[in-house]
C-alpha cells in the first residue's frame, strides 16, 4: 500500500466497472496478442486500438483481457473508462487521480492532467481501457503516455488515421470464424443438431452480438434452431423483431444489434459531406454483402440520385469525390469495409438498414442500384471471370429485395444482362437455366404476352442453341415468334430479331438452304424497316453470307463477308465485337474457298484483335485459337496444329469445362488428326 497525504492507497487498485465476461466467451486470435503485450516489458508499449463493426465483440475482448491481467496480478492499477464522451474520460481520470493521489480539491480537467503525469512517471504497472471511443478528437490531450510499465487498450468503431501510427496500433476485430461461432452456439444451445447450429451461425454472419441475442430470443420463446431460422429467412420480418426486447438483453448488453448500428450510421451521416453516408449505405444494403465494385457508387445513376435527395437542405450536386468521401466515412465508422476495388457490408447491417426504409424507398433504391449495375457492366464482356461473377452476384442479391421492384411494369434490363453474361463467359447451360427461371417470374408477374416475357423465352432459345441444342432452339424460337407477331406485329424489331435467330438455328440444325431462304426474307424486311446501316441489318447480312457458304457457295460467302466487314467497320468501328465476328467468319470462308494460308493469315490478325479487346480467356478468343490451329493443319502444318490445339484445349477445359461444345470440338479435332497420323 501507499500513503498519500495521510490517505492509504491499497494496491492493486481498480477504477471503474469492468464488464462481466459473457457466458460462452470464446478465446480469439487477438486474445493471445493482447496477453503477450501486457506480459512484455522493458520498452514503451504500444497502444492497442481494437476497431470494428458494432457487435463483433471488441468490448468483450477488452473485458476478458482486463479480467485476465487483474486475476493474475499483472497490473497494479486497472482503469476501465467508458469513453463515449470526453466528459466521461475526464471523469474516469479524475476518479483515478483521487484514488492514487491527493486531488480532492482539484477540478476534473486538472485532476485528469495530474493523473496522466503520474502515469508517465510511476513505476507501478498499469492498464487503461478506453471502451467505446466514438470521436478520436475526444482524446486530444487525454491519451495515456507510452511507458515501459503501462499499456493502453481502446475499443472503437472508428478507423480514423488518428487512431493509428506512432505509438498506436490499429487492430481490426472481425466476426467469429465459422468454428468459433459454432462452438459458441454449441455452448448456448447444447441440444441442437450441429448442422443447424452451423447454419444459424452462417445466417447471422458469425456476428458475436447477433449470436448472443438470437440465442436469448429463441430460448425465451421456446423455439428450436430450425424454427428461428425459418423466422429469420422471412424477409417480411424486421430484424429488430427477431431479437430480444431491450429489457431482455443477455450478458449486460446495452443495446440491440440494430440500435448499436444506428448510432454509427447517424455519426457517419454527420461527417462531411453531410447527409450522404446514410443514402449510400441504403444503396449498398440492396447488393451483395460479399462485395460490390466500388466504381458502382460513382456511376451517374447513383450520383444523379444522390443529387436529387433532400439532404438536410444541402442542394449541392453530388460528384465522385463527395461519394468517395462519404464511403470512407462509412468505413471510418466500421459500417463497411472499403477495399481498393470492393465495398463489403455485413449482411445483418444490410438487413437492418433495409428495415428502416419504406416500401417506396426500397423500390427506388433497388432501381437506382440496378441502373448503376447496368452502367458499370462492360460490353462486350471482357476476359474477367471474377469481375463478371461479382456483377452477377450483385444482380442476384438485388433481385431478392424487393423482387417486384425490378419486375413490375417491365423486367429491368440488368436482369437480362446478367443472364447474357453467363452465356458470354462460356456458360450457355447456366444461361438457359437462368432465363428459364426469369421466364417463369415474368409469366407470373407480367403475363405470357408481355414483350419482356417473350424476350426471356427468346433468350432460352438462344442459349439452348449455343449449348448444343439447335433443334430445341428452333422449337422455342418458333413459339417466341408466334407470340411476338401477335402482340407486336411483323415490323417490330423484336420479331425481326427472332426471325434472324430462328434462321440461324435452322442452319445449325442441319438446314443451311432453309436458313439462306429465311435470311433473304429477313434482310428484305430489315432493309425496309431499319435501313442498310442499322446494326441489325448488318447482322442479317453477316449471317446470310455465312450460311451461303454452308449451303455450298464459299466463294460467294467470301465476297459478301468482305462487303459486310467494310460496312461494319465503318458503322460500328474495327474493334466492335460484331466487326471482329465478321472478320473471323471471313477468314473461315477464305479457307473453305481453297485458301487455307489466307485463312491462317486472317485469323492471326483476328486473334491479335480478340486478345487486345477481350483478353486471352474469353470464349471468342479461345474459339479463334482453335480455328487458327485447324487452318494451320489444312495449310500443311499438322504438327503445329496439334500442338496449338493441345494448348487451347487445356485452356478451354480450365475456362469452359469438359462438356462445353467448343471444348468438344477441340477434342474431336485432336482425335481426328491423331487417328489420321496413326493410320
Compile the SSE list and pairings.
Blueprint (H helix, E strand, L loop, with lengths): L1 E3 L2 E3 L3 E3 L13 H11 L7 E5 L6 H14 L5 E6 L3 H15 L7 H14 L4 E8 L16 E7 L11 E5 L5 H11 L5 H10 L4 H13 L4 H9 L23 H14 L6 H8 L7 E2 L6 H8 L12 H13 L4 E2 L3 E3 L2 H9 L3 H18 L8 H16 L12 H12 L3 H18 L5 H16 L3 H19 L4 H16 L3 H19 L4 H16 L3 H19 L4 H16 L3 H18 L5 H16 L3 H18 L5 H18 L1
Parallel strand pairs: 3-5, 4-7, 4-8, 5-6, 6-7
Antiparallel strand pairs: 1-2, 9-11, 10-11
Helix pairs in contact: 1-2, 3-4, 5-6, 5-7, 6-8, 9-12, 10-12, 11-14, 14-15, 15-16, 16-17, 16-18, 17-18, 18-19, 18-20, 19-20, 20-21, 20-22, 21-22, 22-23, 22-24, 23-24, 24-25, 25-26, 26-27, 27-28
Shape: elongated
CATH homologous superfamily descriptor of the domain at 2-172:
P-loop containing nucleotide triphosphate hydrolases
Helical fraction equals 55-70%
Task: Name the beta content range.
Answer: 5-15%
Which value, in Å, is the CA radius of gyration? 33 Å
Number of helices: 28
Q: Within the CATH hierarchy, at the fold level, what is the topology of the domain at 2-172?
A: Rossmann fold
In short:
The chain is built from 28 helices and 11 strands.
Walkthrough of the structure:
The chain contains 28 helices and eleven strands. The protein has helices at residues 29-39, 58-71, 86-100, 108-121, 178-188, 194-203, 208-220, 225-233, 257-270, 277-284, 300-307, 320-332, 347-355, 359-376, 385-400, 413-424, 428-445, 451-466, 470-488, 493-508, 512-530, 535-550, 554-572, 577-592, 596-613, 619-634, 638-655, 661-678, and strands spanning 2-4, 7-9, 13-15, 47-51, 77-82, 126-133, 150-156, 168-172, 292-293, 337-338, 342-344. A six-stranded parallel sheet has the order 3-5-6-7-4-8, with helices on both faces.
Amino acid at each position: 500500500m501507499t500513503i498519500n497525504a495521510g490517505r492509504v492507497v491499497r494496491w492493486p487498485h481498480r477504477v471503474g466497472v469492468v464488464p462481466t465476461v459473457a457466458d460462452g466467451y470464446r478465446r480469439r486470435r487477438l486474445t493471445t496478442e493482447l496477453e503477450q503485450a501486457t506480459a512484455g516489458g522493458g520498452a514503451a508499449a504500444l497502444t492497442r486500438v481494437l476497431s470494428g463493426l458494432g457487435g463483433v465483440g471488441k468490448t468483450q475482448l477488452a473485458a476478458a483481457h482486463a479480467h485476465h491481467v487483474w486475476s493474475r496480478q499483472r497490473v497494479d492499477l486497472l482503469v476501465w473508462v467508458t469513453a463515449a464522451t470526453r466528459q466521461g474520460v475526464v471523469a474516469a481520470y479524475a476518479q483515478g487521480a483521487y484514488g492514487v493521489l491527493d486531488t480532492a480539491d482539484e477540478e476534473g480537467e486538472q485532476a485528469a492532467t495530474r493523473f496522466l503525469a503520474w502515469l508517465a512517471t510511476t513505476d507501478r504497472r498499469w492498464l487503461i481501457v478506453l471502451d467505446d471511443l466514438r470521436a478520436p478528437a475526444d482524446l486530444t490531450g487525454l491519451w495515456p503516455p507510452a511507458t515501459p510499465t503501462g499499456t493502453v487498450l481502446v475499443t472503437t468503431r472508428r478507423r480514423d488515421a488518428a487512431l493509428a501510427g506512432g505509438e498506436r496500433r490499429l487492430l481490426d476485430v472481425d466476426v467469429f470464424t465459422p468454428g468459433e461461432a459454432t462452438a459458441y452456439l454449441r455452448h448456448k444451445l447444447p441440444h441442437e443438431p450441429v448442422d443447424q447450429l452451423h447454419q444459424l451461425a452462417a445466417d447471422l454472419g458469425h456476428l458475436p452480438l447477433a449470436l448472443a441475442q438470437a440465442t436469448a430470443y429463441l430460448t425465451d420463446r421456446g423455439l428450436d434452431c430450425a424454427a428461428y431460422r425459418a423466422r429469420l429467412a422471412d424477409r417480411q420480418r424486421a430484424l429488430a423483431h427477431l431479437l430480444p426486447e431491450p429489457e431482455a438483453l443477455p450478458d449486460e448488453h446495452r443495446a440491440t444489434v440494430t440500435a448499436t448500428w444506428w448510432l454509427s450510421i447517424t455519426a457517419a451521416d454527420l461527417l462531411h459531406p453531410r447527409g450522404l453516408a446514410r443514402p449510400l449505405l441504403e444503396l449498398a444494403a440492396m447488393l451483395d454483402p460479399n462485395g460490390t465494385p466500388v466504381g458502382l457508387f460513382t456511376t451517374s445513376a447513383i450520383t444523379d440520385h444522390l443529387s436529387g435527395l433532400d439532404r438536410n437542405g444541402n442542394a449541392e450536386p453530388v460528384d465522385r469525390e463527395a461519394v468517395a468521401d462519404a464511403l470512407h466515412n462509412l468505413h471510418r465508422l466500421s459500417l463497411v469495409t472499403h477495399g481498393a476495388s470492393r465495398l463489403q457490408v455485413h449482411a445483418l447491417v444490410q438487413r437492418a438498414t433495409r428495415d428502416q426504409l419504406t416500401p417506396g424507398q426500397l423500390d427506388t433504391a433497388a432501381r437506382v442500384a440496378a441502373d448503376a449495375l447496368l452502367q458499370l457492366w462492360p460490353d462486350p464482356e471482357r476476359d474477367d471471370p471474377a469481375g463478371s461473377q461479382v456483377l452477377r452476384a450483385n444482380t442476384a442479391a438485388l433481385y431478392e429485395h424487393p423482387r417486384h421492384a425490378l419486375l413490375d411494369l417491365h423486367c429491368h434490363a440488368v436482369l437480362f444482362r446478367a443472364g447474357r453474361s453467363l452465356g458470354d463467359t462460356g456458360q450457355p447451360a447456366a444461361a438457359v437455366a437462368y432465363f428459364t427461371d426469369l421466364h417463369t417470374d415474368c409469366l407470373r408477374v407480367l403475363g405470357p404476352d408481355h414483350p419482356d416475357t417473350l424476350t426471356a423465352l427468346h433468350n432460352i432459345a438462344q442459349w439452348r442453341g449455343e449449348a448444343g441444342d439447335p433443334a430445341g432452339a428452333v422449337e422455342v424460337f418458333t413459339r417466341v415468334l408466334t407470340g411476338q407477331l401477335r402482340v407486336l406485329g411483323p415490323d417490330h424489331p423484336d420479331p425481326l430479331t427472332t426471325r434472324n435467330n430462328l434462321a440461324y438455328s435452322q442452319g445449325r440444325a442441319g438446314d443451311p438452304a432453309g436458313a439462306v431462304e429465311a435470311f433473304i426474307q429477313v434482310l428484305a424486311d430489315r432493309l425496309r424497316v431499319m435501313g442498310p446501316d442499322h446494326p441489325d441489318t448488318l447482322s442479317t447480312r453477316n449471317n446470310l453470307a455465312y450460311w451461303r457458304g454452308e449451303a455450298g457457295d464459299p466463294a460467294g460467302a467470301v465476297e459478301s463477308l468482305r462487303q459486310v466487314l467494310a460496312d461494319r467497320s465503318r458503322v460500328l468501328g474495327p474493334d466492335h465485337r460484331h466487326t471482329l465476328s465478321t472478320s473471323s467468319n471471313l477468314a473461315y470462308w477464305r479457307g473453305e474457298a481453297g485458301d487455307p494460308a489466307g485463312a491462317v493469315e486472317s485469323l492471326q490478325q483476328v486473334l491479335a484483335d480478340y486478345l487486345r479487346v477481350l483478353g486471352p480467356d474469353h470464349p471468342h478468343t479461345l474459339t479463334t485459337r482453335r480455328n487458327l490451329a485447324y487452318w494451320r493443319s489444312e495449310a500443311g502444318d499438322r504438327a503445329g496444329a496439334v500442338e496449338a490445339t493441345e494448348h487451347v484445349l487445356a485452356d478451354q477445359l480450365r475456362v469452359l469445362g469438359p462438356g462445353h461444345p467448343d471444348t468438344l470440338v477441340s477434342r474431336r479435332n485432336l482425335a481426328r488428326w491423331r487417328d489420321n497420323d496413326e493410320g
